[in-house]
């Protein structure tokens, strides 16, 4: 039986041969890492793969390739991102070929030992938190699907880290956040890896007026992270890329998760659930709760 | 100076740490609140982490902090008072830092005293002593074995042996450290240089095929290479590679504050970011791959051409922490003409 790697390479080769796409956005592995790559019809496809280290949310590269006919691998993170981008009219869906894959869940890179034995394990405790709460493992919106569908459900957990943070008494929680924020070096990798932070100019780069000092420090850093979280309210699809890319290990997504959970519990809303899902702050229903209005 | 060799027993290493804390501001590897490895100021020897693994942030911030106030001003009572911060009050000891981190200072010293003497940086450097700890094994992403930089600039390197460290003293600064705590150090016996050579061989850190000598001429002809676009186009333009890099040293000058008071400071900046060369009317590096190319060529072509060593110690942080795992070593080999295969098999349309 063909491996997913072989099937994927054959499928992508066909897409190029049939002149369906100009570029393919996928993952290749080399030098011990799996990482995103933009492939052309002349590329050697032998590195193309999909494995448990295919972390990046590939939708983050869409603005770079806008206008091209593009094939891309979509695990559920990308599926939900494309749904939000479509609702926000940021997507040329007719130019995309969505290649579906069975998602084996990503292994938390911080739990990988040097020999990467964890990659062979199916223990959800080793997964990234987002994968433990993911409800769909087989790309429902795929134009073509490679590999064999996975029928095992995930543990469908909630937000354990957020709950752990919330369980702290207020003072301790504030100290915890202050500590986390003091680690931030403001490389802005969280913003740049985020597929929904697509503003051409971010408020942090404005200098007239300058909303935010360039110097780092717990206060300035918190200012940045809170504004980013609010800009993603009801939009974040919880791909957790912000936390994964953070070089100093700040669980950035906890801030976004506070809002995601509120949208889920108060409005029964999950961002990017379907292509028809309107962004929460745009959608209006007659029976929306209004108990906050005095 | 000629190198000197000493033995430092494991017990005396603890004694050295405790005694040095009275005389120096001691920086060493330790764990932060999240349990992650960092260079910090452990208060006891038990809190010092003796591991090969590097903290995500290098030790450069101790000579070139991410933010540094250059002048502070205050207005009041009809006058303006301005003051420049004073030089550091204490000597700094980098205790057990990675050799690649310690070696970086000697490389960037050259740019900070090239024509303009950068006083705040040099004041810190003058008060810094390095006691580096050699790694026992090369790790996945690091490639110091391919970088021919002068580790000779590191004050002292400790090589872990059975129950003791073999300490090689390479500078006057290192010799002063030994003299200060002379009773903790014993004369090394045998042939220490041979012992070090076999240690490096075993660890995989012995030098082979240096990237500089072999790649520089190739890189000099690769500026217009068509593959930059495809190989570097996944760069997202964050500052991780440069901020974690022990040798990246570009900075920006910013003013903060207003009419009644404020400060002028310098902050780290990075060439991979889209605002770095942006001017009101023009952005000469208008695509991301051009910004990535600048970083690579600065390190492996422009800097050695002007100052001698490559602007890299092979620590591999820019690979480990890169969100898209761009591999500078592989790209130097490819664009420098040492390898025909682009990383990940990607090629540009001919």
Describe this protein's structure:
The complex is a heterodimer of chains A (294) and B (350). Chain A has 294 residues and is of the alpha/beta class. Chain A has helices at 4-17, 76-87, 129-133, 160-166, 170-183, 189-193, 218-231, 241-245, 253-267, and strands spanning 23-30, 33-39, 48-49, 70-74, 96-100, 144-145. In chain A, strands 1, 2, 3, 4, 5 and 6 form a six-stranded mixed beta sheet that branches. Chain A starts with a helix and ends in a 27-residue tail after the last helix. The relative contact order of chain A is 0.12. The mean pLDDT of chain A is 93. Chain B has two domains: 4-208, no CATH class; 212-345, no CATH class. Chain B is built from eleven helices and twelve strands. Chain B has helices at residues 10-23, 99-112, 119-126, 172-180, 192-203, 211-220, 227-232, 240-244, 288-307, 317-320, 328-335; strands at residues 4-9, 24-31, 37-40, 67-76, 79-83, 91-98, 128-133, 156-161, 164-169, 185-187, 251-257, 261-268. In chain B, the strands form two sheets. In chain B, strands 3-2-6-7-8-9-1-10 form an eight-stranded mixed beta sheet. Chain B has a four-stranded antiparallel beta sheet with strand order 5-4-12-11, with no helix packed on it. In chain B, β2 and β3 form a beta hairpin. The N and C termini of chain B lie far apart (54 Å). The interface between A and B is large, with 49 and 46 residues.
How many domains make up the coordinates of chain A? 2
What's the SSE pattern of chain B? EHEEEEEHHEEEHEHHHHEEHHH
Q: Strand pairing plus helix content of chain A: what structural class?
A: alpha/beta
The 3D shape of chain B can be described as: globular
- Number of DSSP-assigned strands of chain B: 12
What is the helical fraction of chain B, as a range of percent?
25-40%
Computed over alpha carbons, the radius of gyration of chain B is: 22 Å
Number of domains of chain B: 2
The low-confidence runs of chain B, each spanning 5 or more residues with pLDDT under 50, are none
- Number of separate helices of chain A: 9
What is the subunit organization of this protein? heterodimer
Major pleated sheet of chain B: 8 strands, mixed
Order of helices and strands of chain A: HEEEEHEHEHHHHHH
Number of helices of chain B: 11
Q: If you average the pLDDT of chain B, what whole number results?
A: 93
- Give the overall shape of chain A, derived from the CA principal axes: globular
Termini separation of chain A comes to 64 Å
End-to-end gap of chain B: 54 Å
Task: Give the radius of gyration of chain A.
Answer: 20 Å
Biggest β-sheet of chain A: count, sense, barrel? Answer: 6 strands, mixed
Number of strands of chain A: 6
